[in-house]
Amino acid sequence: METEAETAVAEPIAQATGLVKTYGKGDTLVHALRGVDVTFERGRLTAIMGPSGSGKSTLMHCMAGLDRVTAGTVTVDGEVTSSMSERQLTRLRRSRLGFIFQSFNLIPTLNALENILLPLTIARQKVDREWLDRIIGVVGLAGRLKHRPSQLSGGQQQRVACARALVSRPAVVFADEPTGNLDSVSSQQVLGFLRTCVDEFRQSVIMVTHDPSTAAYADRVLLLADGQIVEDLVHPTEDGILDALRRHSPVAAARAE
Amino acid sequence: MFKTTYRGILQHPVRFLLSVLAVVLGVAFITGVFALRTSLSGTVTQLTDSGYVANVYVRGAKTATPDGTSLSSSLSGHRNVPLSLEDRVSRIRGVTYVAPAMQGTGVLVGKNGTAVAQGGSSTLFLGMDSAEPRQALRVLDGHAPRTDSEIALTAPALKRSGLSIGDHTKVIVGDSVLPVTVVGKVRYASTESGVLMVGISKSLAMSAFNSDGTTSNLMVYGSGGESDAALAKRVATALAVSGSVRGTSGAEASYTASRVSGVSGGVVVSTAAKMRAETNESIQQALGFVSTFLLVFALLALFVGGFIIANTFTQTVRQRIREFAVLRAIGASPAQVFFSVVLQSVIVGFIGSLLGLAGGVGLVAAIRAVLAAMGSELRFQAPVTPQTVLIALITGVLVTVLASLAPARVAAQVPPVAAMQQQSGPERPLTVRGTAGVALLLLGGAAVVIAAIQGNGAGWWLGLGAAAVLLGALLALPLAVRALTTVLGWPFRVLLRPLGAIAQGNVMRNPRRSASTASALMIGMALVGAAAVLAGSTTASVSSIVDQSLRSDFIVQSATYRLPDGFQQQVEQLSDVARTDVLSYSAGSLIQADGVSVQVASVTRGTFAKSLRMPTLHGDLSTYDQGEAVVQKTAAKDHSWKVGDTLRLTSQHGQIERRVRIGAIVDDSSFLGVPVTISTETFDALLPASQSRLANSVLITARAGVPRAELRRQLVSEAKPFYVLSVLDQKQFVSERAQQVQSILNILYALLAMSIVIAVLGIVNTLALSIIERTQEIGLMRAVGLGRLQLAGTIVIESVIIAVLGALAGLGIGVGVASALPSVLSSSGLSTLAIPWGQLLWFVVLSALVGVLAAVIPAVRAARMPVLSAISAE
Description:
The complex is a heterodimer.
Chain A: H1 2-9, E1 12-23, E2 30-41, E3 45-49, H2 56-63, E4 71-76, E5 79-80, H3 86-96, E6 97-100, H4 112-123, H5 129-139, H6 154-166, E7 172-176, H7 184-201, E8 205-208, H8 212-215, E9 220-225, E10 228-234, H9 238-247, H10 250-256
Parallel strand pairs in A: 3-8, 3-9, 6-7, 7-8
Antiparallel strand pairs in A: 1-2, 1-4, 4-5, 9-10
Helix pairs in contact in A: 4-6, 5-6, 6-7
Chain B: H1 2-11, H2 13-49, E1 56-60, E2 81-82, H3 85-90, E3 95-100, E4 103-108, E5 123-128, E6 137-142, E7 150-154, H4 155-161, E8 168-173, E9 176-188, E10 197-201, H5 202-209, E11 214-215, E12 218-222, H6 228-239, E13 246-248, E14 254-257, E15 267-271, H7 272-319, H8 321-329, H9 334-374, H10 386-412, H11 431-454, H12 459-495, H13 499-509, H14 511-549, E16 554-558, H15 567-572, E17 577-586, E18 591-593, E19 596-598, E20 600-603, H16 607-610, E21 616-619, E22 629-632, H17 633-638, E23 646-651, E24 656-666, E25 676-677, H18 680-686, E26 693-702, H19 708-719, E27 725-729, H20 730-773, H21 775-783, H22 788-818, H23 821-824, H24 837-864, H25 867-871
Parallel strand pairs in B: 5-10, 7-9, 20-25, 22-24
Antiparallel strand pairs in B: 1-12, 1-15, 2-11, 3-12, 4-5, 4-8, 6-9, 7-10, 8-9, 13-14, 14-15, 16-26, 16-27, 17-20, 17-26, 18-19, 18-23, 21-24, 22-25, 23-24
Helix pairs in contact in B: 1-9, 2-7, 2-9, 2-10, 2-20, 7-10, 7-14, 7-20, 9-10, 11-12, 12-13, 12-14, 12-22, 13-22, 14-20, 14-22, 14-24, 20-22, 20-24, 22-24
């Protein structure tokens, strides 16, 4: 009960109503999202899960303004992004959003620190030293700031990417399979960092993953299947997630019929 | 494996197209150069072919030292024959008609009262002999000139002069201005070339061109019943004293009768075919310089093209590392991977060469249009010969394949595990390449310094040095990229935060690639820089020589290199004129000084005392007025002539001889600029025929107190009736000379413009490919908030940095090497080194613009990339 009350009280950071996304036309028409209504709360780590082809990545891309929606509205941090121009979206990404990708996506010519500061450099914003030091302290990269991406391990690179996503104090961080390319130890470090961000810095994180153990770090897990949200779990355990997944697996669906 | 090769091409059409483009550019340039060369010589050949209408030609003996620098009758390398021979030849059995050659250059005054000029070449005047069986000039309209006051014009001459039949005008032939009437329209033999020709009466031609009683050849017509060779043999035999002749038979027969009474040295009798062959050969030789010059440019283009191709393949291989690794993982051998890349290069090379061939033809058409606009209407027969096609295709494919070998090796060495790894390893180190480059740079630099110290005649050192420096720079450029980019990027870093720093990082990321992109521009700019220094130095040298030497107020020059009769006398009688000095030159190296062919000059007595200062090194210039010779330093050194020595001067193959004491030795940078200057009396005695003397300028000194402007007005009105004279003061004289240099330079710049175009496309190519390579990165940048314009801006800055880098390196090399030119060419009058800094600065600005231009397409492409698919791109 307590968790439900919490959900109701928390203010939304991102919201989608009637979100539809289709690709192609005619015979090749694919419904990636079939009318999704969802609210993401501020100061939470929300995981989006689902089998491949369920639309989980599409949902995140649409929420993050990386992809255009076919129908419906998306509101991020109080602004309707689904009708924004490319220029406005660029500005939004620059100032209010942070991104973490599966394949790290660091700029090879810049060292770790320069990569972290890149969003500020592009936006020509002043560096908040205190904030920067805190982030760097949390990701544990203090000794590696002068290293180029090629001199860092995968886990270290992803932690640089995490720091970069947070350096501009974004309203919301989108993470697309952040642990997809990492070993379990590195994954734990990255997820621990994301948790810290939410718990200590009151950041909002929306994360796409297909791994139940990763999703178990989240405050809330949304399960997508066939372009629709089929489960909404709050503070689930790994087993709880696995159960939900099993309930909505194609095998289960076949058995039900 | 073959399937992966062409699938690879189909899958990445852009990559493929860009590699093809690199080949197209190089091959287009080569084709253009070869086609241009073919058509140049073709045009001239065609022209000369149609001129030889008689069956057999009688010329004097071959001159002992054929000298390419001599003009007119000595072009053929044969002595003139006396006109009296005409009678004897006409009595030989089988000869139906004999006529002396009657042609020379002159000036036609157009409808608007000014001399008709065409692309700097003079108008050809041809005597028309109505009795001649075949006419070089055929009447199309009106009639042939019957008197000395009638002329006939070819269509180009009519067009350019604006005259039509019935019009009255003037011509300047020999040394006189004649009033004439246009009475006919004529056509030059079989073809209509662009050359301006004027038909004149036989008597006028004889008095103007054969006034010394000789002619360059006798044209002999036969009855047509025998071969030209048989006729030639009989004519030669009949003329020979003992009847003995030597020679070759066949269509291009030529017979020499070494003893002919009244003709010293004998005669050579040749068929028309032989004459054509000889003329063509000498023209090909003359064009040889142009061809070599163009060929050097073509090779440069190929070299640059090769760089671009290698660059492109290296990049595409880098991008496909994963793909190769997968192939290796599923069992392809390194050799198979190697050949799949090489096979791709063959396809790219072949398609590129074919397209380049078409491009080259287009290039020639463009050049033709430009030349036509400038007034020289070249006729093009078959600009693209099978030979050209073959050369272009073979070089195109060969260079492409060669350029792909190294990248193919890299591809073959990709380990199968790379398929599972994220990124390729670090760059290969530049140690070997850099060391070789720096060593070559140093050696080349040393050679250039040696050339500068040695001075005259050290051209070889300079050439070798320049080549070594350029090659060394090409190799070592990657080493300099980091430092140069840091310097060049500074203004961008400071002014355009944060784009400047990002762009700079992109340039420095792969020094090898940035260097080879810049190298195309570097080569072009090296040549541009050298040309600019040469031009600047020439102008400065001329101006300093004129400043130091010329003391007269005006110099009157003749466009025909001959002073019309009476002009000097008229000017001398003007009350405001203190004195006039005539400068005369031999028409080429017609005089032998101690057996060496030299060009000589002569000036009016008192010139050196009053009007022309000469930098005297030894002896006394005033002895010139007593008939002694003045010799230039280098000539004196080369032939160990000293003051007090006696020079034996001969002309007309030793028939005329004079002995002159050397009175003074002057510096090479003298106003006259010829090795030997002798008194007017000796000069006239050695060169009796007026055609062998060029008296092209008169120095005019005003009487004290006469306003210059007033005298100028008088001189201009005196000169006007002669049409070909121009009155120049010192300043105008200098700029006139400078303009001559400038017009040569403009042609050079046009050629260099082609290499700049290639350079631009090379930059486009590299940028486009590196953007493909950086797709993911660009996606990320956009995701974290880089705007489209900012992204485009980054790419533009990157391009500008690369372009300016190449330009600076090139200009540095060009200027550095060319700085040795004044000391190497000092004997040719290049005395002062002048580096046109302002002009060089413009070139740098231009190169920055080139960079902006090159970035347009890649920048637009990059900006259009959708963020999402860019990020997830493989």
